[in-house]
Amino acid sequence: MAGVSTPAMAAAASNAGALGSMGVGATNAAGAGKMIRAAREITTRALNINVFCHRPAVANSAVEAAWIERLRTHFERVGAAPPARLQEIYRSFVHDDEMLERLLEFRPEVVSFHFGVPSAERMQALRTAGCVLVASATSLAEAKVLAAAGVDAVIAQGYEAGGHRGVFDSTARDDCLGTVALTRVLVRELDVPVIAAGGIMDGAGIAAVLKLGAVAALLGTAFVGCPESSADEGYRALLQSEAAFHTVMTAAISGRPARCLPNRFTQLGDSVHPGDIPAYPIAYDAGKALHAAAKAKSEFGYGAQWAGQGAPLARTLPTAELVRALAAELETALA
Predict the structure, then answer these.
(1) Can you point out the beta strands (E) in 198-257?
(2) Which pTM value belongs to this model?
C-alpha cells in the first residue's frame, strides 16, 4: 500500500479494531517520520509500518537509455519530454540507516518487510525496541528464509494480491502460488504463525483463510476505494469499472512484477521483453515521471493503479465502516 496508505486511513483502521498499516517504501526517513507522527496524533492503538527490503538496483545505462526512448512517444503524447536519465529513487531498508533510526524513534508495534528481510543486526534492533516483525513470502523457500531469520509471523502473499509481488529475486522462476495453496503449505511446513494475503476482500474471505490455518488476513485492495486513501480520481474510477475484472501482472511500471488494473502502461508492458525493462526502482523513475506528466493533462492511464484479483468486490466505504463491515461479515461466516 506504499503510495496509497495514509495516516488517516491507518489510524481509522486501528481505531476500528484492525491493525492499521502504512507503507513507507515510497518515501524517505523524513517522510516516514512525518506519516507515523501524524498517525500517532489520531490513534493510540497499534500500527504496522511496512518497509521494502529489495536488493539495491544494478544500473545499466544502455537499458535505461533504450527505455527512455521507448517511452518517448508516450511522453510526447501528453506534451512532455522524458527524463534525460533515470535514477534509483527508493532506498532499500537493508541499507537505509536513517529509516532504521526513525523506526527506532517511533517504535511502531509491528514492522513488516517486503521483498526479503534486513540484516540480523537491524532485526535485533527493532526487536529490542519492542517491534513485532513480520515479512512476506511467495513460496515455501522464501518462507523458510524468513523463519530462519527469526520473524514473528510470515505473510503468505498469493499470486492474486495487488501491488508488488514480494519475490526476493524478481529474475527467478515464480511458481505463482495462489493464496489458498500457499497458506496451506506454509501452515503445514512452518512453526511460526501465517498471515494470508491476496484476493481477500470481505468477511467471508477472511473466514476462509482462518479456516485454512492462517492466524490473520491482510487486506490491501479492499481499502483503496476508502475516502482516506490517497488514490487519485482516475485510480478510483478504474477500480469501480469493468477493468477491475481484468487485473494483470506487469513489471513495466516499476521494474518489478506488480498486479495492476489494466491501463496504457500495462498494455505497453504486454509487448516488452523483461530484459528491456530497467531494474527496480530505476524503471519507476520513468514510470512516475510519465504518470505525473499525463495526470497534468487529466490522463490517468499511466498510473501505478495496483489492485488484486478481488478488485470487483471493492467498496467505497469510509475505513472505519469497512472494518466494522468486515468484522460483521466474518462473524456471520464463522457462525
Answers:
(1) 216-218, 248-250
(2) 0.96
